[in-house]
């Protein structure tokens, strides 16, 4: 009842001949290009936004608390470190949002050919920079 | 690449090999839930960022009043439901991909899920408290 090592890699090809399936390429031998870079960046920003929910929950809990609680949360967000985190959070959110829409389009079967996928990837990068700056310009004017 | 004379030393049937593996598990439900929550988050995230910009610099009392209104509290609740579900699904895949030891992986998954649920509940109760 024990599989031989690598047994799961052994398969038959369309002619019925036993072959060893190739391993899929992994990071060490995979040449980085825009698609793989944006893909791993989607994960990194996703995890970062997950950590960012700490700030969101703090803000909500502080709002539901006393004036002092609220002042502490807003004071932290307005501090240099808080603003830096908030800027990173904005950029990560805009990126994950735009690239997420790109992924949803792929899931629907749109834009999967290489030239389109590369073009949409570049659009995501340009869009992230533009929207992040726009949100902060509006924010700084309103504030 | 053809192999000299490979053979599979197993007594298990093809069905036995595939049961409990790959698509025979609940992969589709996970995948689908991640897409649906992503879709829900598209309008909710836009609304939330615009709302935050509008709330900038407002005093505490005004913020509490704003969050407490049903037309704001309900989309806010929808946002945190979709957000924390999406987060939990995404972090699960990341953990499963990068942590290989079975015991450590299970422990990290449980801690992650507990943390996400607790964060969700804090946000949930905070919004409700400002609504009533």
TrEMBL record, chain A:
GO biological process, one term: tricarboxylic acid cycle
Entry's transmembrane regions: 40-61, 73-98, 119-142
Binding site for heme: 96
Cofactor(s) recorded in Swiss-Prot or TrEMBL: heme
Subcellular location: Membrane
Role, per record: Membrane-anchoring subunit of succinate dehydrogenase (SDH).
A molecular function (GO) term: electron transfer activity
Protein's UniProt keywords contain Cytoplasm: no
Protein's organism: Acidicaldus sp
Topology term for the membrane: Multi-pass membrane protein
Subunit structure and binding partners: Part of an enzyme complex containing four subunits: a flavoprotein, an iron-sulfur protein, plus two membrane-anchoring proteins, SdhC and SdhD. The complex can form homotrimers.
Alphabetical list of InterPro entries matching this protein: SQR/QFR_C/D (IPR034804), Succ_DH_cyt_bsu_CS (IPR018495), Succ_DH_cytb556 (IPR014314), SuccDH_FuR_B_TM-su (IPR000701)
Note accompanying the cofactor annotation: The heme is bound between the two transmembrane subunits.
UniProt keyword list: Heme, Iron, Membrane, Metal-binding, Transmembrane, Transmembrane helix
Cellular component annotations (GO), alphabetically ordered: membrane
Protein name as annotated: Succinate dehydrogenase cytochrome b556 subunit
Similarity comment text for this entry: Belongs to the cytochrome b560 family.
């Amino acid at each position: 009842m024990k599989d031989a090592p690598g047994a799961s890699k052994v398969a038959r090809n369309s002619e019925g001949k036993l072959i060893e399936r190739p391993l899929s390429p992994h990071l060490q031998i995979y040449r980085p290009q825009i698609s793989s870079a944006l893909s791993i960046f989607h994960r990194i920003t996703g995890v970062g936004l997950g950590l960012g929910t700490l700030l969101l929950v703090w803000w909500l809990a502080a709002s539901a608390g006393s004036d002092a609680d609220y002042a502490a949360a807003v004071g932290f967000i307005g501090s240099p470190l808080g603003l830096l985190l908030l800027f990173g959070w904005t950029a990560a959110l805009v990126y994950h949002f735009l690239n997420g829409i790109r992924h949803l389009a792929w899931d629907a079967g749109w834009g999967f050919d290489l030239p389109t996928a590369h073009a949409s990837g570049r659009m995501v990068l340009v869009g992230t920079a533009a929207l992040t700056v726009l949100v902060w310009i509006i924010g700084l004017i309103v504030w | 690449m053809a192999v000299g004379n490979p053979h599979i030393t197993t007594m298990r049937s093809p069905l036995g090999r595939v049961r409990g593996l790959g698509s025979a598990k609940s992969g589709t439900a996970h995948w689908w839930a991640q897409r649906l929550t992503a879709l829900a988050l598209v309008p909710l995230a836009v609304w939330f960022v615009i709302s935050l910009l509008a709330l900038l610099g407002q005093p505490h009392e005004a913020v509490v009043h704003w969050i407490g209104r049903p037309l704001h509290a309900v989309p806010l609740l929808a946002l945190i439901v979709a957000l924390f579900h999406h987060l939990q699904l995404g972090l699960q895949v990341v953990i499963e991909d990068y942590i290989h030891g079975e015991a450590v992986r299970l422990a990290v998954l449980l801690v992650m899920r507990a943390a996400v649920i607790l964060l969700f509940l804090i946000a949930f109760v905070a919004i409700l408290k400002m609504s009533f």
